[in-house]
Amino acid sequence: MPLMKASRSSNGRCWTLPAHRQTKPRRQTTQRELDAMTTATIEHAPACDDVLVQALQGCAPLVADYFPQSEPVRADLLRQHREQRPEVLVFGAFSAGKSTLINALLGAECAPVGDVPTTTKVERYDYGPCLLLDTPGVNAPIEHEETTGEALRSAHLVMFVVREGFQDDADLYTRLFELLAAGSDVLLVLNHSMTQAEGIEKLRRHMLTVLDDWRRHHGCDPALLDRLPVVPVNAGLALSGKLKGKQAFLAVSGLQDLGFELSAWLEQVEARTSLVQRIARRSLAELLVPLREHLQQRADTPQELVTVGEQLKVMSGAIDRLETQLRLLARGHVQASKADIGSALDTVAEKPEQLEAQLQAIAERGRKQLFECLAAGVANLGEQLALSHRQANLQPPDLDKLLGESSGILGQLGSMLGKAGVDGLKQVRPEHLVEAMKLLRSLKVPFFKGRWEKTFSRWAGKYAPLVAVLAGGVEWALDMRDQNRRNQQQRVAAMQRMQLINEIAASIQASHDQSIDDQVAELRTCMLAPLQAEHERLLQHHGDIARQAEQVHGWELQLQRLAGQD
To answer: Is residue 401 packed enough to be buried (19+ CB in 10 Å), middle (13-18) or exposed (0-12)?
Structure first.
């Protein structure tokens, strides 16, 4: 809200009160009226204040996580809201007489007074519907500047005190015009030691001239001075009048004029409602908008999530390629083995007990090819896994712990094959099914300690058809020998032979496929699990950030309506 304005005279250099204030003489504010002003009450805040409190309290965890440096601002806004009174900041050089002026307004020596800086922090004093804030000053030690700066940003009115004899201090006017340009409500108090009206008016006009010259020299907007009241006050005389109860001192001091300006400003502020709007605007500018923009930036550009997702695709693609390579190799081996299966069936007529050994040798060749391919693929995957973890800023895993003991795998498989002998396929007992599956498993590489021995029995039933096929092969061989002797049904036997070759090959292929399925599933579980877990964690984390940004945006919209910015 603009304060009571001054208007410029025709010569463009001096400032007078506006016309409506000149048509009738100003009535002097009595001491009783001043005392009544200092004990005035403020209307209760509207229900919409709850929105402000909810926003300031609700954003506390987010401020702590992302903007800890803004926590003092948030706490100060809550404090302003609780106290429900506008803040009038008394500002100026440390020797300007700020504390004396405050004591004069309060009617008691509450603020410390001295020729050297006596205020090192912002002190607050009750002044009826307002709080008076005493600050270290414009030229206070550097360590106090931040304290003063925070108080300036939060104050609702700045009472800028300039001491007689310091009107030409450039630093003062720089700060003054910065406040005006920022839209702050400012009241300029010219502290002097005069008692004659003529001298006081001359001093006031000189002050206005200096302000206008400084404005023109620095190219500032003339409108800035249109809303700057200049009130001369003899703060020392005013304090003496208050302490001694001398009305004549108060009348000459100009304190009553200052009280009039404060009263007019309070009326324009519209008490509590305007204060809530100011707190809401500051909450938006200094807290919620920067916080929401920061959260949105983190949610919109989750580079770490993108990186982990890319590495997860890289590893999954590498396992897919290994799986394709294994399946092509298995199919090629089975297709190439059909001729060997046929030869085994042809030669077993005289020695049926050799069928199992010959088929075992065929399976062993395929198993070896698949295992060598798998071993090389796992080694490459291990290198790729370590690289992917580094790219995703994760600790590379211990591959030995990830895959279990893997040394001497070929030797272990060889010894397992050596135990696979059976006395005859037609006499296969149930316990021999486990040994038969060990023989035909082809790709059961024991990367995981104890895993294959425990699961062979579970899978035994899957391979019973293959055992039956082999048993049928023996029967066919015996029948073939009789048919050769009798030279009968050769054509049917040839068809049966081809069908049996295809069935044996299909059974071997099925066992290969099942083994590849199981092994690739194990590889995906152990190799992709760390990246998948990190990806899920980041998805959850960035999803939470996006939801937090939406929550802050909701508070932002509510405070915009409260601040009248919608």
So the answer is: exposed
Burial of 163 (0-12, 13-18, 19+ CB in 10 A): buried
Distances from the Cα of 162 to the Cαs of 112, 138, 227, in angstroms? 18, 11, 17
Spatial separation of the C-alpha atoms in residues 204 and 122, rounded to whole Å: 29
Degrees to nearest 5, angle at CA 222 with 221 and 227: 110
Torsion of CA 410, 413, 414, 416, to 10 degrees: 160
Helix (H) or strand (E) holding 92: strand 87-92
- What's at 446, amino acid-wise? P
Average pLDDT of the chain to the nearest whole number: 72
* Domain layout of the chain by residue ranges: 303-552
408 Ramachandran zone, left/alpha/beta (phi>0; psi -120 to 50): left
Q: What is the pLDDT of residues 481-505, one digit of tens each?
A: 555 555 555 566 667 778 778 887 8
- The percentage of the chain sitting over the pLDDT mark of 90, rounded to a whole number, equals 11
CB 215 within 8 A of CB 178: no
Tokens of 350: 């005289």
How many Å apart are CA 443 and CA 522, to the nearest integer?
13
Between the alpha carbon of residue 109 and those of residues 40, 88, 133, 238, 295, the distances in Å are 22, 18, 15, 12, 49
| Token pair for 544 | 């939470």
For residue 385, the model assigns a pLDDT of 79
Q: How far apart are CA 265 and CA 94, in angstroms?
A: 25
- Residue 91 CA to residue 188 CA, distance in Å, equals 10
Dump pLDDT digits (tens) for 309-353. Answer: 888 888 888 888 888 988 898 888 888 888 888 887 777 656 666
CB neighbour list of residue 536: distance below 8 Å, 6 or more residues apart:
none
70 has pLDDT over 50? yes
Nearest-angstrom CA–CA distance, 191 and 100: 10
CB atoms inside a 10 Å sphere around CB 341: 23
Return all residues near 329 (Cβ < 8 A) that are at least 6 apart. Answer: 369, 370, 373
- Burial of 422-437, coded b for 16+ CB within 10 Å and e otherwise, reads beebeebeeebbbbbb
Q: Identity (one letter) of the amino acid at 1?
A: M
